[in-house]
Amino acid sequence: MRRLAIQNLSAWYGPQQALKGIQADIPPNAITAIIGPSGCGKSTLLKSLNRLLELIPGVRVSGEVFLDDIDIYSPTTDVTEVRTHIGLLSQKPFPLPMSVFDNVAYPLRVHGHMPRRDIPGRVEATLSAVGLWSEVKDRLKAPAFGLSVGQQQRLCLARALAVEPDVLLCDESTSALDPMSARTIEDLLVELKQRYTIVIVTHNLGQAERLADHALFMWLGELLEQGPARRLFKTPEHPLMCAYMAREFG
Asked: N or C end of the chain: smaller count of CB under 10 Å?
């Protein structure tokens, strides 16, 4: 399992600094939760981990993010390859305007990871992995927008996993879902950490406490505390982390 390491990572939106010298190791085969109040830099940090941040006009990033021994910000690193190895599940489901089948097959065709004859088998396996195959196997040619919101998010998860990334980033990926669909995604993430390194951003402390093996606490662009989730949530050391866990602000 490949390991992510963040070294002296900073980011600016124009003149405003959003990340300030972040240093962190993301453990493999685990769920790492990035927590903190609104506007503290959680999503900025997450999107910097597969270079999606730099798609925003005016953004500047410095520092290093290593996937094993490869610095994803090196000028010689292929950005497309980075995003193949580090997938993202966004806050709201964004199925492509095509069929259920083609939503999962699309990245396989684009990246050329396998012979076309093998794609149907991978689509079935991936849909099965997210618990969706039995629900959609008779409507694979139907438009993906016909699925429920919860099903659409699982479809987007399947699309992210189809190319077999090493790391899965989840940006508040259950916040737009009903409680049952959210819990389904949570259960899937717990299962998937056996095969993937998972990093989640969540405003839901209860969710972080349920899912996280490791946690990073952000405050105004700084990483104030990090470590095993059980220790951080039960006996935080930084006063602001203590106040956050006491729900004094959010």
From this structure: C
Q: Residue 11 domain-assigned?
A: yes
Domain region containing 133: 4-245
Q: Which of 3, 43, 57 is nearest to 27 (CA)?
A: 3
**How many whole angstroms separate alpha carbon 184 and alpha carbon 228?**
24
Q: For residue range 190-249, what is the model confidence (pLDDT) as tens digits?
A: 999 999 999 999 999 999 999 999 999 999 999 999 999 999 999 999 999 999 998 887
Query: Residue 23: helix, strand or coil by DSSP?
Result: strand
pTM of the model: 0.93
Question: How many Å apart are CA 132 and CA 158, to the nearest integer?
Answer: 9
Output the domain CATH number for residue 130.
3.40.50.300
The residue among 157, 13, 161 whose CA lies nearest residue 94 is: 157
Helix (H) or strand (E) holding 8: strand 4-13
The answer to the question of residue 250 being in a domain is no
